[in-house]
UniProtKB/TrEMBL annotation:
UniProt xrefs under InterPro entries: P-loop_NTPase
UniProt-recorded name of the protein: AAA family ATPase
Length: 100
């Protein structure tokens, strides 16, 4: 099991892509479970098999990215950010952090 807490914060785009390639290789070659926290919802959307949305210290939703988007926006092609905003009822300008 590999725990990563905000691993790409502050990385340039090239380094960010290299880190995710490394994580994907570790998962594929060793069957490693990766537990990730991130504020980058685009990252979670592409990389996660399962997402848990934590808001104000409480689990408020969980599922696959497609499931969360379908359930909370009615559109599986929506962004995960749109789903998050629907789940939490918060405006996109909120400064409160979340963990996914």
């Amino acid at each position: 099991m590999l725990f990563l807490d905000e691993p790409t914060t502050g990385l340039d785009p090239g380094s960010r892509a290299e880190l995710w390639d490394l994580v994907r290789r570790i998962r594929a070659e060793h069957g490693t479970t990766v537990f990730l926290t991130t504020h980058y919802l685009d990252e979670a959307d592409v990389l996660a098999d399962r997402i848990v949305v934590v808001d104000a210290g409480e689990i408020v939703a969980e599922g696959t990215p497609a499931d969360l988007k379908s359930r909370f926006t009615g559109n599986p092609a929506a962004s995960l950010q749109d789903a998050f905003l629907s789940i939490t009822g918060r405006a996109a300008t909120s400064d409160e952090p979340i963990a996914i």
